[in-house]
Amino acid sequence: MAKKIVWFLLAIATVIILFLIVGTSQSPKSTSSQESSKETKIVSYSRDPLVEETSLTTRILIIGDSIGFGIGDEEGLGIGERYRALLSEKENVEINLNNISVPGYQSDELVEAIQNQDSQALIQDAGLIIISIGGNDLSRLQFQENLEVAFEETLAIYIENIDLVISRINQLNPAATIAFVGLYNPDRSQEAIITSSLSKWNNETQSFLNRKSGVVYIPTDEIFSDDLENYLSADGFHPSGAGYQAIAELLDDVLDEMDES
Prior knowledge:
- The protein has 11 helices and 5 strands.
- The protein is α/β, with parallel strands linked by helices and 261 residues long.
- The termini are far apart.
């Protein structure tokens, strides 16, 4: 009787061991299959968005002076970053933004800057080029004795310089859209001759740019006159964050109108 019990227990033990061996040998295959399936899904998922982003990339380049750079913006965003945010809200695109603006630049210095190979490579790669220049050309006139004569000479040279800039950009990248930011008057208490000079400066600039294909003018003076105190930074000259936001929104509106026309 004892022998039968022993043999019975051995038989049960053998069955259990065989079950464990078979179960163990099959379990890794099932796990491996599941992991392989997950890995395939992850690779497929990560690949598709990359292809989509590559085909829907907007490249923006900003060139010019301190306003192009973003001086005065409390958040350090400037026109470029604020426009990028507006664009991101409307379109599912990857936005590549480069800013090579230099505070203090005058138009002749911008002409020199775009001869640089690195600058030209960025120009060739950009879909939208935002230009802010002219404020420093105009502001130096305050030291001239004969303001009217100096103004006409400076304006003529300035128009020649922006013609060189626009022409060079068109040579390097004829498909790019160029957005040119106009000047605003930071001090409404100035003499009438200074105010009229700024208006003429903007009108001449806009008139010249209107003859250029693929170029839009961003008229900032009117929007700043509506809320000058809020739109100026503490230095009383550069835009505040709110001012840059207003420029970015105007830029967005003008470019939308251009796309619809």
